[in-house]
Predict the structure of histone deacetylase.
Amino acid sequence: MDIDVEDAQEYQKHPVGTVIDISTAFKETATINPDAVMFGSPYVEQPLSAVIPAVLSTTSLAHMKQSMLIEEDVEDELLAPEHNPLPVSSLRTGMCYDVRMQYHDDIHDSTASDRHPEDPLRIYRIYKELCNAGFVEEYEGSKSRTKEELMKRIRAREATREEILLCHSSEHWDRIQRTATMSKQELRDLTHETDSVYFNRESAFCARLSCGGAIETAAAVVEGKVKNAIAIVRPPGHHAEPDEARGFSLFNNAAITARVMQKRYPGSQRILILDWDVHHGNGTQRIFYEDPSVLYISLHRYEDGNFYPDLAKDKNGFANHKSCGAGSGLGKNVNIPWPCAGMGDGEYIYAFQKAVMPIAYEFAPDLVIVSAGFDAAAGDQLGECFVTPAAYGHMTHMLMSLANGKVVLLLEGGYNLDSISRSALACTKVLMGEPPDELHSIYANEAAVDTVHKVVQEQSKYWKCMNPTLLESDGDDPTVARLHDVIRSYQTKQLFEKWGMVKLPIYSNKVSPTYREQAVCTPNMWTAETLIFMIHSAPDVWLSAGALSSAAELHQSYLLDSGSMYIDWAVSNGHAFVDVNVPAMISGPENEGYNIRQATKDLCLYLWDNYLELADAKDIIFIGVGEGYPGIVHLLQNRSCMSRVKGMINFVPMNMPLKAWVHDLDKDWYYLKSIVYTAVDHPAWKTGKKIRRMYGRATKGVSNEMNKLLSENYAQATAFIGAILNKAAAARRGQATIDTSMSAESMADAVRGQDSIDIVQDPETFAVVFRGTLIEHISFRFDLTLAIHLGEVIQAAVCKSSSHDHGNADEAEQNATQSIAIWNRLSTLNFQNSFAIRFRTNQIIDILTDSIRAVPARRIAPQL
Ligand SMILES: [Zn+2]
């Protein structure tokens, strides 16, 4: 070991106790830390006081302390702070920047407004931001700071062929080298042929310099010259594949750096590459896919393979959460694939807390390399995400708890010059020791929570810290039953016992055999006048899952089956019922490639062609729940069922777009015949615009849970169906019916001379009928959408009518009394539980004329 003689003498002079032979202690040190011997001491330039703790473990330090101070009972000044600075925090943060990396530029003539996003100015702007913050040694404005408050500059150099070949083919190296002597046209052609990379004659040089800068930066950290570092380099690297330049990347800086560190330093074998660039680092993943020594974790927009780089080439789920590595590298690849744009602080911090950090702790890296693209930053046009500088600081802070703080940030993407410089500054401050700024949004959205959950389940196969563990069954194991099938067979049994419902045979090549168990019908299916067809997702099961595994705590788990309320209602009213369950997954090997939307559509057509159309039923009602909803609309679109389908109710979950349907002859048919209940937070309501009639009568539900949508709207939905059926039946009997499309006069004509009328649920109908026909001048206003039972409706109307009066208090009270009188008479009709009711015409006229006589004449002025 090369020890500064003066420093050693300084120790000898130290006025404490009896000083023992210090070289003995250092021999001991040398055996403890082989790295220090094999690679030369990185500490030579430092005072001895800094060397001791850096190379000694805590126990050997304590040992040395004991042996150095024999018997003397004096103050232990040798280990006092001024002589023994903290080994890591007393080091500075490194920074690599080389202006020559700007030479790589797009040779297409471009104006300021259409510059290529991978702009040479990117690195300059970050560098300048650090200068302005006063962290850069050679910058004039940094003079006021002490050396300890400044970053240590790390010189970039060109990476060697040998280093590049640790990750790339020699053909790739040669191809890049050749660009230095190409003509302008050749460079243009090559740029054109390559997947999102431009070239000029300086590209090869800059790529070597960028990669060499990254290597030197990491080396400075590993050697303890700096505690951590940021490399402001370009061109970026994480898209570069072993044999191909892609996505602005020529050489894979992060991957090559990792390999060089492993080769040079025995103490840097386990390396974490954390990639928070908004794009997936396809190159890095590929290079280490079968390598257990490098853990690659990436957070990126994925969008089912429709976001770069998957979009451009693979489209095979390479960036998806199921890609976990292969061979001995299996489990050392973690993808956190965002399904959409718009992720921000809450989502990134959530992913770090739930997946990134637990896995990183368990991996226990020797070195952390961050592929630090800043294109998920707020303001980046390509990334369309909202990560703030504060969140980048927090992520950096969390990573610094790993690998003894040995963290190296390498710039990747990031195209908004303001965003990248502010983000890089926030990370740098944290690297230097400042706490990260306060976060303002810490809540993850549903899509992110769902994504991270999938990642945790997938990674639970490889990491003990990932709970709950995922049980995967291939469906062939006779001891394992899908709960879905268990529940369906329970439901089928219940429906048989209660209503005699039996299985409806389904045999079709287009329809999966699993569906054979999923459809049941009442025995009167062929003969009943009314047939109700309900197709729905499996009922909700609320599982209380164990903390460690996915095993459910059965006594705390519940089956929520609101769909059965509808069956009970229909069957007890004598209607035929066909109930179909749509499995989210299919048992067995055919689950592969199962597309629930397509399967549901095929099934609906099959059921219509083979059963529904052939039944005697004059009136058919559709109910589509969850995954059943698109099937119902598809059926309307593909079969002419308008004459027999009298109405439908649909329940639409959050993640399902509304489906439009318009018929050439009757544009409003779907609207008038349907209620479409949506999840309360359904995106359709967020546009601020009214939902168009072609989507049916869209109604915002009370919950995002299908089960709650079904139960909360049960009364209104069944009343709607009941009213429609009554109207249809009345029409067949030749009775008068009235509906919203009629004018007040034609309603009056229709009703006059009838023994009774059927009143159909609709706000306008009631108002007009009461105003226009039965009692011509009463100014009732109805708001049926607020009320479920007719009784409540009339009560509401009566109360509103009285409140219309702006007269004195006495009159108001009198009106209220009158209203109550009207209400009391009406309520004796006992129609509270039926929405669609039949009034004896003269009976209601009696009631209302009684009341009208009691009301002052001026208050029954016409309102029409
Ligand atoms: Zn990117």
